[in-house]
Amino acid sequence: SGASLAQVGVTAQKTMRLLPASGKKATQKVVVGDQDGVVTCFGIKKGEAVPVFKTLPGQKISRLELGGALNTPQEKIFVAIGSEVRGFTKRGKQFLSFETNLTESIKAMYISGADLFLCASYIYNHYCDCKDQHYFLSGDKINDVLCLPVDKVNCITPVLACQDRVLRVLQGSDLLYEVEVPGPPTVLALSNGNGGDSGEEIVYGTSDGKLGLTQITGTKAIPKWEIGNEKKRGGILCIDSFDILGDGVKQLLVGRDDGMIEIYNFENAEDPILKHDYALSESIASIQGGCVGKDGYDEILAATYSGWLTGLTTEPVHREGGSGEELKLSQEMQSKISSLRNELEQLQIKVLQEREKYQQCSLSSTAVSSVPAFSVNDKFTLNKDDASYSLILEVQTAIDNVLVQSDVPLDLLDVDKNSAVVSFSSCDSEPNSNFLLATYRCQANTTRLELKVRSIEGQYGTLQAYVTPRIQPKTCQVHQYQIKPLSLHQRTHSIDQDRPMNTLILKGQFSFAEIHSWVVFCLPEVPEKTPTGECITFYFQNTFLGTQLESTYRKGEGYFKSDNISTISILKDVLSKEATKRKINLNISYDVNEESVRHTLKLIHPKLEYQQLLAKKVHLIDALRELQVHEGNVDFLLPKYRSILEEADQLLEEYKRQPAHLERLYGMITDLFIDKFKFKGTNVKTKVPLLLEILDGCDQDGLIAFFDAA
């Protein structure tokens, strides 16, 4: 692994910076803020951390930025703690304590000269010399903020990265325009550290691992490049620009929540190319390029979730048959490692002594049990590629086991990176009880666990994860995640208006806030706060089938349009249930488009054929392998059977990854069939066995004819 330089408490995103080098010495000091509220500043000498200053603990630090007068070294340290901003000199003397008027904790902060930009959930505030200047209420949660360099663009242009896949560009207290990006943006950075030649270029990273560069002009955004997440890596938490390769052009340094550090190079000055990557075992909260350890040696410094600071240097390594630069450990680090080993042995002896002391104390009559607190960083998100949910649990110490329990049917899917041993427990068939009980036992030193589940639309409830770390005395935390009725839907910027659509219309004595809360209950990715204005429209796409949904509502009325009649059916059932709970009378009407059912069947059919073929091939593998052993060769087999044998491992792997895929498709087609006739007032449940026979036959025309004739 990389060379660990020091450890502080658990750190949040963007809380570690390198101070500019001062005087003749070119090495830089590291400053980091942690969730114990401590700001630590240190230098590195001979691979060892040498402290400069350390503040007293307090509330957790959510952001750390450097500032100073424009065009001077940015060496003043600013931290966001709750709703307060504190300033420290590089020597650790506090010179500012600014209690803002924000009612919530600060989530994002940016500093430019005398201008301070703060965001808390949906609220943006701009202060100049600690005096209130501008205010903006965003339509969805704000994840990050920056301002284009004032000396280049000659005006203050703040940019907000918002959860609804939009960058909002402001002027004063007003929205100038919105920029659609391919995923929920989690982090913003000025391109090249200065906004590029124009000062208008910003780089964004998204929670689903995409990167992009866009130019923010005074009137519109001009997208420059975008990199998808082909390798299915983690979400992006931090970005820096630094010339680590020493070729005169700054590279893009990227840190992800799965522990990946990446270096992108601009070889043809246009699109960046991934040049190097390096994997750590926990999420990268902050990343910086600079000269820390040795004069003249540049390195990349990363701060991880649990507070480790790791330095990576690039030194050329010439290998047999391989070439190019690699990230490697220096000599200095190796001697440091042996001194750490000695230190570790001493600590282990001390731990044993303390544990014995604790055991003795706990037996005494005055003993008080103490439950150790531990921090869990979790992320529950829908993946567009395979319509599954990823649950990522990261704990500040090693995980012993995680028990996963759900009161709705869920399929657990395979995760390659997961080394934990999973065991399932049988569940009672009672209503309102468990549908899933699984225990993941982690290997030693696992601090991060990733699980994948797929839900079934229309079945909603709660998934719970009981996390037990390897600490004494044994303690456990439970985390809950809502599985919503339309759980496989994801927000999108627009939909195809030419598809055949079914419409559901709701009217009644309900407020805008009430209908909004029902939509939040039904669908993922809807901001919890009631939108400003009188009316709102959201667009969604079903990640499994590619069908779509448009929802428009205001006080007293709601319109829901979808090309999938089952989506409309689920909404009708859930919304009327929610309204009944609140004793609100709903007037429900709908307009069903017959053509839409055929259209949805045509969307499902290729997936159905593919999965049926996969299942058939997998069932043949054993028999074909036996023939192969028996006959000694497979030359006599038809080419299609030979290719099954050649691809056997990939086929089995794919089948294992998606265990209940075919069942789910059968279920969706059955629901579509029942829903089509439900809206006509006919119950066709008795015809379902016949439908399943037709499905086994896998004939699209026969299937459509059955739907039409029933």
What would your notes on this structure say?
The protein folds into four domains: 2-234, 7 Propeller (Methylamine Dehydrogenase, Chain H), CATH 2.130.10; 378-482, Immunoglobulin-like; 489-592, TATA-Binding Protein, CATH 3.30.310; 597-709, no CATH class. It is of the alpha+beta class and 710 residues long. The protein starts with a strand and ends with a helix. A hairpin with a 4-residue loop joins strand 19 and strand 20 (211-216). The chain has ten helices and 44 strands. The protein is 22% helix and 39% strand. The strands form ten sheets. It has a six-stranded antiparallel β-sheet with strand order 39-41-42-43-40-44, covered by helices on one side. Strands 1, 26, 27, 28 and 29 form a five-stranded antiparallel β-sheet that branches. Strands 34-35-32-37-38 form a five-stranded antiparallel β-sheet, with no helix packed on it.
Quick one: biggest sheet? 6 strands, antiparallel
Oligomer: single chain
Helix content: 10-25%
| CATH level-4 homologous superfamily of the largest domain | YVTN repeat-like/Quinoprotein amine dehydrogenase
Which percent range describes the beta-strand content? 35-45%
CATH topology of the largest domain: Methylamine Dehydrogenase, Chain H
Structural class: alpha+beta
Question: How large is the radius of gyration?
Answer: 29 Å
CATH class of the largest domain: Mainly Beta
- Name the shape in a single word: globular
CATH architecture of the largest domain: 7 Propeller
Number of helices: 10
Strand order of the largest sheet: 39-41-42-43-40-44
Number of strands: 44
